[in-house]
Amino acid sequence: MAAIGLRVSGCLLCALQRIAVGGNEFEAVTPRDNIQTANAEGKCHLANLFLHSLADDDGAAQPIDVRPVAGQMQAFEATLDYRMAGFHIQATATPREACQVSEMSTAATMLDPGDSTLAEIYVTAKQEGTSFKTLRYLVNVSRLSGSETELGHVAVSGAYFVPGWKSKNKQYTVFLNLEEDLVKFNCIKLDNGQAVKMTAEVEYAGTHIQARRLQTLSEAPSESKSVGEAQRVNSMLMTTLDVGHSRVVQLQVTSADRSRAGNYYFTVQRPPCAQERRFFDGSSRMCTDICNEGFYGSSATGRCTRCLDSHCAVCEGRNCTLCYDKYELQNGACVLRGAGSGMALVSQVESGVASYAQKHQTMMVILGGALCVIASACAASVFCAQGSIKRRPRLLQEDEDEMHDFSYREDSDRP
What we know:
Blueprint: H1 12-22, H2 31-41, E1 45-53, E2 66-68, E3 75-80, E4 86-94, E5 99-102, E6 109-110, E7 116-125, E8 135-143, E9 151-156, E10 159-162, E11 171-176, E12 182-189, E13 195-200, E14 204-205, E15 234-240, E16 245-254, E17 261-269, E18 279-281, E19 286-288, E20 295-298, E21 303-306, E22 312-316, E23 319-323, E24 327-330, E25 333-336, H3 340-359, H4 361-413
Parallel strand pairs: 3-8, 11-17
Antiparallel strand pairs: 1-4, 2-3, 4-6, 5-7, 7-8, 9-12, 10-11, 12-15, 13-16, 14-16, 16-17, 18-19, 20-21, 22-23, 24-25
């Protein structure tokens, strides 16, 4: 099965230099850079290092990120998700015609949750007696326990945190740029099995922008330039925030084994527009004193808000004062020019029907009640009439029986 994984630097010195300069531990050097450096120095190097999880029932395996260890020239580290029971490791050396990887186990390595192991990789020359020296690389591989509730990294687009991001810190103040209408939380999970839920409280007016302090803050990891799949992927959660307002956002993290949950709290603040340009235009993402046609400046939200009537050009809240071309104002609404008389007639008919119904509502209720009483009386009289008709034949039959008995007794008394 072809190896799936994240390509990392074989030239360790070059990789560490990039980390020190760019502050990005996730960036990997391309194989072309590795080969050029190896040929220039005339030494064997580790070119590519691949780690992937065990294949599932469908034959699919998940990539495992490999990171160089800061301060160590030939050491790497990797972390398995809680659901990854083990891993495979594959590596290649450069230059290919003179160097090879030897003494490396190709069998699957199993790990218990929370456990770790140390894998060794040796890069040697294919032929003895050459100037290439044997190099030993170490890969420290660990598996998460499944109870972690920390996130790997959180950043907000167009904003910075105070204090700077650290997984152990649970409360932050987020200063959002004025032109950002959306609060976009970019989250990297510590374990892909974790579940992240965002809850945004009701926004409130006011900020504490004056409390900003300049300090060195941690930067979000930039996107890797390596080609291939990655273990940790970025997920985005969004909410909104008006200018001059603040909002508390909560990120709830449920562990991969669903046994625990933890919370991060972010107080997001967005500065207001200046008084001379006190409305924010969402289309241009700038503050203005006059909103475009079809919009009005809302003092409640501090932004240009669309008129309720789509044909209204100038409005103030619910009241329209000027319509677009080919439309005219009729009773506070914009109607097609020339159709105003017809619309007025329809409105008059509708209002007349509504007025008639309101005036005669009591009469209609009384009339309905009277009809119900009459219907009930008719039903009762019919029911009584049917009962008397059914009982009358029975009385006649009893009279006939008595007459028959009387006649029989008279006949029996005769000699």
